[in-house]
Amino acid sequence: MAALGWLTPRRRSATARSVLAGEAAAEAARKTSQELLPATEPTVADTPEFPVSGDVRAAAFFDLDNTVMQGAALFHFGRGLYKRNFFQRRELARFAWQQTWFRLAGVEDPEHMQDVRESALSIVKGHRVAELMSIGEEIYDEYMAERIWPGTRALAQAHLDAGQKVWLVTAAPVETATIIAGRLGLTGALGTVAESVSGVYTGKLVGEPLHGPAKAEAVRALAAVEGLDLDRCAAYSDSHNDIPMLSLVGHPYAINPDTKLRKHARERDWRLRDYRTGRKAAKVGIPAAAGVGAIAGGTAAAVAIHRRRR
After folding, report:
1. Is 161 a catalytic residue?
2. pTM recorded for the entire structure
């Protein structure tokens, strides 16, 4: 797998690989959006003045990890694959450490994210796409369903109730993202596209992970084919890495924001929503609904695995 040198804390403009990843994600999203489940019963949102009902040239784009769902989708997916003997204990320890760090820091560390994606690609190589989709449905029920933020879910439902399309935009695999979007009744998902030949994963990516500038390129590409006016669209994220995507739309929201995004949002008068509780959560971005016990539990699990290996 090619080195992902673009994954640095420093912001940079889109590269050719970002554009390729974005266009691949948009194409995959368009193909799968019609197959997703219909929306569930409406939920009252906390923004009655927005979105504008009937504005079909507007849409909403939601980041996934720590915006729609507590924690990292890749970690939860990895837990499910481990339970099904897809990989060994040492890989689980790596997933556990990445998730524990993510909860403690509340931000996406490029090196951690690159490491976990490379591990995931090696794990699924040689498996059929249909097989992973079927397993992904089970994993959602086991590990992800109870971790959806109700507040963010309500915001997404407000757009659906207004007759607008709602898309997840995430660095998680597009197959995982599509499953989550379907279970939440959303339109579809833009995610990292893993290469497959004749329905079998090759262990390579199309372009690069859908992260940072690549997300903005995916939204731009999808908006073009969907006939959307980005100035009338909304985007939601917790991470400063998604500033390119948030800056692309007329209605950017910082949801459970990390420190850099909170500062950026306040400077530009963007709307903020924080569905975590407690002063500590607000300061460092810990998903407080998960509780200190969950963080300690994740750390203890990683340590226990390490000890058993020794």
Report:
1. no
2. 0.71
